[in-house]
Amino acid sequence: MIITKNEKQDIFKMSIQVRLNGFSFCILNCSNNEITWYKKIDLGKEQSPVEILKEIEKLYAEETNLQTEFLEVIVLFSNNLYTVVPESFFIEEEASTYLKFNTKILKTDVVAHDMLAHGLVNVYIPYTNINNYFFDKYGEFEFRNNISVLIEAVLAKNTESKNAQVYLNDYSSYYDLVIVKQNKLLLANTFQYDTKEDFIYYLLFTAEQLQIDPSEFNLWLLGDISKNSDNFNIAYTYVKYIDFLIPAFNFTSKLEQSETFHREAFSLLKTLKCE
Predict the structure, then answer these.
(1) Strand pairing partners for 75?
(2) In this structure, are residues 116 and 152 in contact, taking their beta carbons and an 8 Å threshold?
(3) What are phi and psi of 151, to 5 degrees?
(4) How far apart are CA 275 and CA 267, in angstroms?
(5) What sign results for the dihedral spanned by CA atoms 32, 142, 225, 234?
(6) Euclidean distance between CA atoms 155 and 186, whole angstroms
(7) 3-state DSSP call for residue 162?
(8) Which residues on neighbouring strands pair with residue 180, listed in sequence order?
(9) What is the pLDDT of residues 20-49, one digit of tens each?
(10) d(Cα 228, Cα 38) in Å, to the nearest integer?
(11) 136: number of Cβ within 10 Å
């Protein structure tokens, strides 16, 4: 086939999010800046990396959209196997020592890190078996820890408000929590929960430890949470200023263009960029 000057070749980029309880795929066509495919698989409860990989392999065997040739692939690992440290204290050769206080490290674990803005480093453990699978498929690709995306997005807002800004990205059985005040990171953590009482307990306990008042901070919600949910209702009871974050993306889409979709797929969309 001869391509003339008036014809464009489609250029695809894909972001993949591997969660404790599932995974998601998002494909961007850079020739027209369009999100062409989004797929979210919810496995219900926390799964091992081995079980998650089995489900990913099953999807690849069934889904024709994944047979596309991609210019770029980015994998995001969403788990609680991370810690954020100041860059001034970070020594790459000693990376595992930053994790040993809050994470059980196995001899087979590989420790990675994301260099973030504002002099921060996120040290974390990716799933080696899943990385190996994608390397076999695509060769070299970029991978990051999922909360790194949220931290950078929050700090990029450059909010100088004297009140703390609390960002909660919910994944049905756990959530990422990032708290900033006057554009300085106070906390980045992940909490697993079973009930709505667990959901609000971790939020209020964290606020108490940081000495920020639920009647004063702003709570911004992302992810799998709606105004009709029990989690929202209990948070609304205890937190005075609560709202849904409205992410701004300039993609077109044959899929959903709703704010709900943008909040659910926030990390995936945030990592997709065309030159």
Answers:
(1) 16, 143
(2) yes
(3) -60, -50
(4) 19
(5) negative
(6) 11
(7) coil
(8) 165, 185
(9) 899 999 999 999 899 999 999 999 889 999
(10) 24
(11) 8
Q: Let me know: does 267 contact 19? Beta carbons within 8 Å.
A: no
Of 107, 86, 87, 88, nearest to 96 by C-alpha is 107
Greatest pairwise CA separation for the chain in angstroms: 65
The reply to whether 230 and 258 lie within a common domain is no
Q: Which amino acid is at 121?
A: V
Q: Band of the pLDDT at 1, cuts 50, 70, 90?
A: very low
- CA atoms lying within 13 Å on the CB side of residue 162: 0
Beta-strand pair 112-116/120-124? antiparallel
Report which residue type is found at 38. Answer: Y
One-letter amino acid of 234: I
> Which residue range forms the structural domain that includes residue 64?
12-78+248-271
The residue count of the chain comes to: 275
**Tens-digit pLDDT profile for residues 125-154:** 999 999 999 999 999 999 999 999 999 999
CATH of the domain at 26: 3.30.420
Look up residue 214 and give its amino acid: P
263 belongs to a structural domain = yes
Token pair for residue 169? 């990205």
Q: How far apart are the C-alpha atoms of 260 and 246, rounded to whole Å?
A: 9
